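**Paired protein data**
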Amino acid sequence: MAHVHHFTYGLITLVLAYSVSVLGCLLGLICTARARETVRLSWRVRWLALGAVSIGGTGIWLMHFLAMLGFTVSNTFVFYDPALTALSALMAVAIVSVGIFLVGLGRPSMVKVLAGGVITGLGVAGMHFTGMAAMRVLDGQVEYDPVLVVSSVVIAIVASTVALWFTIVIKSRPALAAASPIMAIAVTGMHYTGMFAASVREVSVNGRVEGVDVTTLLIPSAVIVGTVLIALLYATLSAPAAEERAAQALTVRLLQECDEQMPPPAARPTRATMRTQLRHHLTVRDDDESEATPSGAFVPR
């Protein structure tokens, strides 16, 4: 068996991957919290979609990719299939979207959280091992420990369930700040459990291995993810102003509709006219009571 290194460059890849996961989970929780506060369905869908991209794309997939920078095998080279790598990124966002929309739309419940947690957890584990399947080891074959594979799947399901539960209960900013590192620990722990399940057996392979080096994928991935993060930050910061403008526009429209249904000012009775009408009504009522009361009868006043 070839010797596998998970931290070739020290703990820097672990710290970097965990930090990015915290940022992605934090942005995702902020987006889902805003979705709960939004009444309009279109805005809620928009916030939930941003949350899925934040958690799935940044908190999970980018963390996985950065952690893979530290994965090397002694006396050989590791390459990656770009198509499978891109597929794993799409899987992360799509599967997290299923769980977040299942919980975020309609009335939340623990049944939805548990169902979404199982679906999302299986999807996240599938994303992870799809990314692992993208590895091409020169003169080596990747094998997996079944016990650690099952453990990583269980961790993924638990982490996804906790993450979805956080999306419906976390409201305050301190709680958001405390929940995101917990989510990142679970996600990062799942990744490294799956990574430690992998071992490489040396084999003789004739010809070259198809794929690209991980550092070659790093630059375009960093550009894409950086652009997405900037867009998410901009959307998170600018959306309150946009929602306020939309609410103000709705208020103005409702006031205009009320004004259209009201009679014109000339047709509205003045206060003096209303007092005269009220006085006349009371006088007529008193006269009717006097005619209906027999002479000499006591009428209480």
Q: What stands out?
A: Residues 295-301 have pLDDT under 50 and may be disordered. Residues 4-236 form one domain.
